[in-house]
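User: quick one
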Amino acid sequence: MELIQRILSADPRAIARAMSLIENGDLKAREILKGIYFRTGQALVIGVTGAPGSGKSTLVDKLALAYRKLGKLVGIIAVDPTSPFSGGAILADRIRMQALYNDEGVFIRSMATRGHIGGLSHATREVISVLDAAGKDIILIETVGVGQDEIEVVKVADISVVVLVPGMGDELQTLKAGIMEIGDLFIINKADRAGVEKLEKELESMLALDARSENWKPPVVKTVATQGEGVSELIAAIHRFDQFRKASPQALQSRKYTVQENLIELLKERLLERATQQDGIWDKIQVASRDVKARKTDPYTAVEEIVRDLA
Ligand SMILES: Nc1nc2c(ncn2[C@@H]2O[C@H](COP(=O)(O)OP(=O)(O)OP(=O)(O)O)[C@@H](O)[C@H]2O)c(=O)[nH]1
Ligand SMILES: [Mg+2]
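Assistant: Done. Structure below.
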């Protein structure tokens, strides 16, 4: 397919087209993903997550610029799982630095993935594959908040960076469970503000309690994203983690997507697709729903009957 060749030669319009097909759940996306699979697996995928307004976009921009200076090709994806429409995601997109838009070595895309059939992480992973195959060395993924959706996205990243800001106090406590598990590296951004030391202490004591089996103590890096302060330290910390994960891939296995999980997910998708393509399936589902609701049958039997009738 011509589109595949164009993606492999990093044509931005082809990349954008492939991403639209993926977002829309178009069947053509699958052919593209098949065609590019053997060229994936090279990029370093960095997930950046944190509370709204913590400075993720500013940081991602500065990181992108710094990586460009190091000669790396960069992809940026802003994922907005909280927004049912693309509005939120477009907003995240708009504030990016002009310098990045003018640079051919940077590809930027926003995604509002709520409602994607395979779920958020699924679509994100496919979009990452496209950027990876197009030769991007560094792929930055920005997600809003630290909730279940974000944790899903984090699973697709090679390294997960959690952005905190001083003055969070209690908020840190509520984020605790989520962030402790997902953070490979913590950033205290807006380090030009009061309360940095307090936050740092709290974070350090939480990290000290963290019973990780994996021999990696997440570093804490202080940044002032607006000034680009701390960005080189951040890149150094990312590099150290990258070395760690390559040296001990077993250590992180439980948190990252495995090939087997991916296959099971694809299998579910294909089986559901096959089922829903059957003639009269929606009528059967409707009748069954009515019967279950009226307690004429139970949902388990109803599904068994539907499955038995599948060709
Ligand atoms: N004082 C200070 N302000 C910062 C710093 N980093 C970012 N900001 C400001 O914080 C605001 C939010 O920054 P964004 O980068 O949009 O934050 P975000 O986390 O991407 O926000 P959402 O995508 O809306 O969740 C902007 O006005 C930034 O200029 C910093 O280090 N210090
Ligand atoms: Mg943002």
